[in-house]
Amino acid sequence: MSTRTNALDAVVFGVDVQSGDVRGDAPSYALVVYDGDEDGLERDVVSHRKLRRLIADIEPAIVATDNMYELAADKDQLIHFLGSLPAGTKLVQVTGDERPESLSRVAKRHGVPYGKEPMKEAEAAARLAAHSVGYEVSAFTDTTEVKVSRGRSTGKGGWSADRYTRRIHGSVKRRAREVESALEDAGLDFEREVREAYGGFANAVFTVDARPQDIPVSNERSGDVRVEIERERRDGIEFRPLAKRRDHVVVGVDPGTTTAVAIVGLQGEVLDVWSSRTNTMADVIEWIVERGRPVIVAADVTPMPETVEKIRRSFNAAGWTPQRDLPVDEKQHRTADEPYDDDHQRDAMAAALYAVDAHEDQFERIARKLPAGIDRGEVTARVVADGETVETVLEDLTEDEESDEEEREHQPRELTAEERRIRDLERQVERLEGHVETLEGRIEDRDDQIEDLEAELAVTRREERRQIRKEREVSRLERKADRLESERDEAREEVDALEEKVERMKTLWKLDHSNFADVSEKKAGLVPVKVIEKFTKGAIRAAEEAYGIAPGDVVYVRDASGAGRSTAELLASFEPRVVLKNGNLSEIADAILFDREIPVGPGDDVAMQEVDELAVARESDVEAVIEDWHDRALERKRDQKAEMVDQLISEHRAGDNEV
Question: How far are the Cα atoms of 471, 483, 484 from residue 477, in angstroms, in the given order?
C-alpha cells in the first residue's frame, strides 16, 4: 500500500451495519476508530444516535462506509445527515461513486485486510479511506453563507425601545464589519448583501467562496448578535474522489547534481518532464506520485544508479537499464521529436522511451489477452512489476462475482422485551426530537419574521411621527408666513399711505400760487392750515393722527356745529393760533374758546387753497381774522363788564330797599 495522504492524517471512523436496518428497526453499527496507529484501533457497537453524537463530539476527518444508504434511508435523510456533520468531517463511500464495487474487491486491490464480519468491514472501510481510497459524498457546494443578524427581539415601540433597537442594530453592524474584515484578511472572495435598519443593520449576508472550515468565523450567539454559517446545497448528490486517478506510467530518471525525471505513458507518449538542482529525493517521489503509478523505473546507464534504485523500490516497480550506457547521439535521435530544457531532461526522457520500446511487445501481448472492461494498466503493472501471468491476474480479477460481491444480509438476533422496549423508546425519542427540531425551526423563522415586521412597524411609526411633526411645523410656519405677509401688507399699505401723504405735502408746498397776486416768487406770506372735517372728538383725533396739531397751528373746522364742552376743551388743549370755522359754534364751545383766548373766525374771510386734508392761506387774511377777533373780544369784555356793573348796582339797590 502507498503512503497515507497528509491531508487525511487524522481520525477516521469506519462504519458498517451490525444489526437492524436504517429503514426499519433501529440499527446498530460496528464502529472502528482509526488514527494510523495499528495498535490503537478502537472498536465498538453503537446505536444510530450514539454514532451521530460521537461524530459531533470527536469531529473525525472522515466517516467511511461501503454503502452510504446504510446511514440514511433515502436521499432526503442522507442530505440531512450530511448537513449535520461537523465542518471538517467528510462522508466517504470507499466502494466507488454511483456504481460502487464490492468492498472485498476494493480491499483486495489495495492490499487491505478484509473479513465478512461487520467489524472487519468497518475496519477495512476506515483503512481504505485513510489511504485516500473512495469518493467523498457531498450534497453541498464550496460556497458558504455567513449571516449576521439580531440575537434578540427589538420589542415594541416607545422612546426606550427606540434606543434599544438602535443599540441592537448598531451591534449587528459592528459585528458585520468585523466579519467582513476577517474575510478580507483571510483573502477569501465574497459578496455582501445588507438590509439596513434604524441605527445600523437588521442583518448582513456574506456569500463566501470557501468551505466552513476555511472561514475564520464560527457559529455564535452572544447578546444582541447572532452569526450563522450554512453551506449552499447542491441540486443533487455529488461524488468526488479523495485522490486524483493516476494512470500507470514508465518513469525515466537521470540522477546527479541536477536530477531530471520524465513520465511516459504505456503507449510511448511523453506526459511530463522536469529537472531541479535543489530538490530532495522526497520531492522527486512526490512529483512522480502526483503524475502516475510507475510500472517501470528506467535509467540511461548500467548498472542502475543507487538513487534510481531507491526510487524504484519506493514504488515496488520493475527496473530497466540498457545493455550498455546509451550514447549521446542515440539519445538525441530518440528524443528528437520531444521538447526539453537541458541535457538532463533529455537523458531521463530517453531512458523512459527506450524502456517502453523494450517492453513494447510484452505490452501488446497483454493488451491482446485482455477482455473488454478490464483495466490494462492494472494488469500490465502486475505482470511486469510483480511477475504474475496475465491468466493469473485475469482469474483474480474475474473470479466468481456471486461469491465475491454477494451482499451480506445481517440477520438480527431475537431481541428481548427490554431491548424491544428500548428500541421503541429510541424511535419515539428520535421522532419527537425531529418534530421538536422542526417546530423550533418554525418558531425561530416566525420569531425572525415577527422581529422584522416589528422593526419595520417601529420604523414606519417613527416615520409617521416624523411626518406629523413635519406637517405641524409646516402648518406653524405657514401660519407665521401668513401673519407676516399680512403684517407686511399692512406695513406696505401704511407706507403707501405715508408716501401719498408726503407726496400731497410736497405737492401742497409746490402749488402754483399764481392766483395770489401779492405773493412773491418765493411763496412768502403763506401759512399752512390744518383741516378738521367736523367739530367732534373723533375728527379732532383723526386730524391729529394724520398730520398732527401743534400749538400755534391754524385750524379750519369745516362743520363747527354741535360741539359740546369736552370737544371744545379738547381742541383748546392743542392751543391753536386761530380756529377758522364754517357754521355756528354752540354757545358753550364759543365760551370755552373765548375764555382760553383762542381766536375764532369765519373761514369765508380767509382765502384758502386745499389739497385733500391740507390747505394754505394768506398770512394777511389770518392776521385780519385774528385782529377782528381781538376787536370783538375787547367789545365783548366791555359788554361783560357793563353787565357786571349793572348787576352790582341792581343788587345794591335791592339791598337798600330791604333795609
Answer: 10, 10, 10
